[in-house]
Every structure is written in structure tokens, then in C-alpha cells.
Design brief:
alpha/beta; 2 domains; seven-stranded parallel β-sheet; binds NADP nicotinamide-adenine-dinucleotide phosphate
């Protein structure tokens, strides 16, 4: 299938382009970006123009930041194209619901991707937790924003999510592996005085069986970068580390250690998109985003030192 990539920035170049190039299902037939291009691929700067000029491209993958995503997705769906959305699938939950309604009316497929759910250890963690009683779950997601998001001013603007931009990846894993629904009960959001979004956050959750669930997110981590989820149950302990790429159960590695890498995640997302389109499906799980929205609604804001990149 021919596919167009929209928003040629860091994630498009690092992950989407190589994943599409390696996939048997996909042919990267156009890009849409004001500045970014991909060697050898027809480049447009305007989405409408691409849609009008390329009627044979039936699928559009959006790698924009969250705020411009809604208009682009709406435009592509109205033009009868199937749409794949980078995470988060929109700037607000209402936008995402509107896109889903529109996709159903237009009879096109829509896939809200959560790349961290495709990390190597996630399926094993979900299977192991399925028959255990959870006592405690701790998310620790601490990375250096200067290293991973250089020059991305949109992260600090309304809708940019701040530290929840990576934090929502952890929540996408938690909502995938836990058999029971949880919800936010409290949050503290540290917001730099020159920014609109948090640079660190602590979040607490309600769990129906009373397990203690917390998340600690930090965007100023120096040295070792930490993306772990630890679960204590009635039958032992589980740890997902390296963003979900490593799974340890009671201290024993269950997978070959490949370190932190998104490399395996994106080929699986594109394989899933081929399936979603083939089946005429809509895959739009908004639960990670709901938790972020609730943390922003309920969270106590603390003003902290300005962030200067
Ligand atoms: P990015 O490097 O800033 O790239 C996004 C691209 O979108 C820009 O290069 C820009 O290209 C285009 N764009 C269109 N409208 C824009 C606007 N109003 N503001 C800024 N850029 C605009 O961002 P990214 O890291 O690739 O992230 C994009 C999405 O992927 C985000 O939702 C993010 O959460 C997700 N993601 C990122 C990573 C990561 O490691 N970076 C990992 C997984 C997922 P033109 O100027 O050429 O139009």
C-alpha cells in the first residue's frame, strides 16, 4: 500500500521512515512537511495538495506534534484516507472522539498508535500479571529533555504535555498490562515559570483491589536514563525496564537484553496498521490520554525554576 508521512521531524526520520522502508506492506510514496523531506520521495509542503495530487495514496501517517494533528487528521479522513496517528492521538480527548466519529462516517480506518506497547517485554508482562493479585506498581520515567527532545519548543506550549510526552508512554504500557481499570486520584505538577507544561510530575492512582499505584516523571534526569515499571504481586515481582524492552521476573531476565530501543516497536505498529486497514477497523484506545487529562485536571501546580534549553 502506498502511504504518505506527514511531519518530517525527529520521530519520522528516526523510526517511521526506516520501519516503512523495511516493511513488505508499505511503499513510502509522499511526504508532507514545511521543511523536512526524505531522499527520493516526492515532497509536498501542503496536505491538501498532496491529497489532491496523489489519489492512489490511500493511507496517511501523521507524525506531527499533538496540536496540529486534529486538523491534518480531519483533512485526510474527509478526503477518504485511512489515518495512523502518532501518540498522543490528539491534543484533547474531544478531538480524538470527533476523529473516531468522522472515520466511522467516512468508512475509513483510524489507528491511535502507542509505540511503547510494542516494546519487547510488554506482552510477557501482561500475560504474567493476568492471574496475580497486584499489591504495588511503581512507574519511574526519568529522562533528559535536552538529550531526547532538542529544540522541540512545542513540548512546553499548551497541548505539548511537557514531561507527560514521554510519561504517556509509560501510561500506555500500564493500561495495557494491568487487568483492572485504574484512575488518577492525585497529582503534583512542577511547571517551570516560563513554560505551560510540567517538567516533572508525581501521580497517584486508584486501583479497585487497593494496590498502591504511583508514577514519578522527570524531564531533568542526568546520568542514567530510567524508564521502568515495577510491580509487586502476591506471587512475586516483575520489572519492565529500558522503556519496556527488558522484562525481569523475580530478578531473572526473560528476554535477551537489547537495551533501550524503539527499533522493534515501529515495524510492529506498521504491521498492525496494515491489519487495521485490511480489516476495515478502528483502533482508538484513549485510556493513556485520559489519565494525562485527569492529572492535568486534578493536579496541584507548583511553579519551579525556568527551563532554558
Ligand atoms: P518534531 O521533531 O518537532 O517533529 C514534528 C514535525 O512536525 C516538525 O519537524 C515539523 O516539520 C512538523 N510540524 C507541523 N506543524 C508543526 C507545529 N505546529 N509545531 C512543530 N512542528 C510542526 O517532533 P517529534 O519528536 O518527531 O514528535 C512528533 C510526535 O511524535 C509527537 O507527538 C511525539 O510525542 C511523538 N513521538 C516522538 C518521539 C521522539 O523520541 N521524539 C518518540 C515517539 C513518539 P515541518 O517544519 O517540516 O513542517
Amino acid at each position: 500500500m502506498k502511504i504518505a508521512l506527514v511531519g518530517i521531524g525527529k520521530i519520522a526520520v528516526d523510526q517511521h521512515v526506516p520501519a516503512i522502508a523495511a516493511a513488505p506492506d508499505w511503499d513510502l510514496a509522499a511526504t508532507v512537511s514545511r521543511q523536512g523531506t526524505v531522499d527520493g520521495v516526492p515532497a509536498f509542503t501542503d496536505l491538501d495538495e498532496m491529497l489532491q495530487n496523489c489519489p492512489d495514496i490511500r493511507v496517511v501517517s501523521l507524525c506531527l506534534p499533538p496540536v496540529p494533528r486534529f486538523v491534518a487528521a480531519q483533512t485526510a479522513i474527509r478526503a477518504g484516507r485511512h489515518v495512523m496517528l502518532e501518540k498522543p492521538p490528539g491534543a484533547t480527548l474531544s478531538e480524538c472522539h470527533a476523529l473516531e466519529t468522522l472515520a466511522r462516517a467516512q468508512r475509513v480506518s483510524l489507528f491511535a498508535t502507542w509505540h511503547s506497547r510494542e516494546a519487547a517485554g510488554v506482552a510477557g508482562a501482561k500475560a504474567w500479571l493476568a492471574d496475580k493479585t497486584l499489591r504495588r506498581l511503581t512507574v519511574t520515567w526519568k529522562e533528559d529533555v535536552r538529550r531526547w527532545h532538542p529544540g522541540q519548543d512545542w513540548i512546553w506550549q499548551p497541548g505539548g504535555l511537557g514531561v507527560f510526552d514521554p510519561g504517556i508512554n509509560a501510561l500506555s504500557i500500564v493500561t495495557e498490562i494491568l487487568p483492572d481499570p485504574i484512575h488518577v486520584t492525585n497529582a503534583v505538577l512542577q511547571v517551570p515559570e516560563n513554560c505551560q507544561t510540567p517538567i516533572a510530575a508525581s501521580v497517584g492512582f486508584y486501583h479497585p483491589q487497593g494496590a498502591e499505584i504511583t508514577a514519578e516523571l522527570d524531564f531533568l534526569q542526568q546520568g542514567e536514563q530510567i524508564w521502568t515499571i515495577e510491580a509487586e504481586t502476591d506471587q512475586g515481582k516483575l520489572m519492565l525496564s529500558a522503556g519496556g524492552a527488558r522484562l525481569t521476573i523475580d530478578g531473572k531476565e526473560t528476554l535477551e537484553d537489547t537495551g533501550f530501543s524503539l527499533t522493534g516497536e515501529y515495524p510492529r505498529l506498521y504491521a498492525r496498521m496494515a491489519q487495521v486497514v485490511g480489516d476495515g477497523d478502528i483502533d482508538m484506545d484513549l485510556s493513556p490520554m485520559r489519565h494525562v487529562a485527569d492529572a492535568f485536571t486534578l493536579g496541584r501546580r507548583v511553579s519551579v525554576a525556568p527551563f532554558i534549553e
